[in-house]
Amino acid sequence: TAEIISGTEIAKQTRARLAEEVKELKEKGVHPGLVIILVGDSPASLSYIKGKQKASEEIGVHFKLERFPESMTEEELLKVIGSYNENPVFHGILVQLPLPAQISETAVIEKISPEKDVDGFHPVNLGRMLTGQKAFLSCTPAGILEMLRIKGIDPSGKHAVVVGRSNIVGKPAGQLLLRENATVTYCHSKTGNLSEITKQADILIAAAGKENLITGKDIKPGAVVIDVGMNRNSQGKLCGDVAFDEAMEVASFLTPVPGGVGPMTITMLAQNTVEAARNTLLETGSQS
Ligand code: NAD
After folding, report:
1. Residue 225 is part of which domain span?
2. 175 and 255 together in one domain
């Protein structure tokens, strides 16, 4: 049977460390702040935000939720972001996605100052990550890499297969694994022979958002399986992309849903916010 990687447990340890870092920053006169902007009142968005607020407050980050009606225009939202870009109280700005149809996600993401883009979605941060520079990393991929690191799983020389190629999960996850010297294969909705490829993975990242997409026979014995998916099954229960019980019999390590990637994602957002705050200290330090 596989060892379960508890994202909940690792997130707890990481948050304890971050709480210490926030304390130190406060002593130096910097109180990390995060603002989340929500347009509309989607219950799913509100529930994600609640988790982000809890993690922020737990480690001592100043948190603010700014809400606007569903009817908000793109121009109005861009103006709000512009003012937060200039506001020194908030080191991190996150606009909760998805946005209503009248607002372009691309325009919104590009408006956020890359120095405050704690979600790591801005093309500047994605480009910096791609070229191996210091960057805010997308939280879900960063959380995956952190779990692997803490478990002592070194991607170097391994075959990593990423199922999913979204800009916020699949693509950056593959790039971070490449940076750690894995040989990376991407699979997506047009991949014809998915099982043949996933069966070759030493590290398998399932990020398609399809319940039971990966079953026991799709996994190489001894593989490390990271389940990113968040789906509702027919009983309304939260489940991943991987058939958990079958995977437990084949894999060497497996992340559960819930309690795996989710808590780590939220913790990496808090970590990015702390880093953004620390960066302002470095800037002022070099000026004096
Ligand atoms: P997305 O819908 O933007 O992308 C899904 C990707 O999966 C696409 O690239 C698509 O090509 C691929 N795909 C779809 N069906 C496939 C199939 N049958 N075979 C192979 N590939 C297929 O989703 P996303 O934003 O990347 O999120 C993926 C999943 O991860 C979702 O379930 C989402 O809820 C979850 N998620 C979890 C967290 C977390 O913190 N735990 C964070 C972000 C996303």
Report:
1. 139-262
2. yes
